[in-house]
User: Fold this.
Amino acid sequence: MVRGAAKEQARQKAQKKAEAMKGGESQLKARAEGLKIICPSCKIAMPGYKILVQHMESKHPSAAIPAESSFAK
Ligand SMILES: [Zn+2]
Assistant:
């Protein structure tokens, strides 16, 4: 009956919430690992901002080096 359905719904809701929390955690991790510094000139992914700066200074000396904060997303 209705009562049982409500209980089941609440249980599913709680489960979804728990899964969402877990998912949020792994999403954060994925975001940190997926942080890619990409050269705006040749679109090559760099392992770090410092390496991008070195790369831009040697390969694209006339191009503006984007701020590190522009990659922190
Ligand atoms: Zn480049």
Notes: The mean pLDDT is 83. The chain has two domains: 1-34, 36-73. Residues 39, 41-42, 44, 55, 59-60 surround zinc ion (CB under 6 Å). The two ends are 48 Å apart (CA to CA).
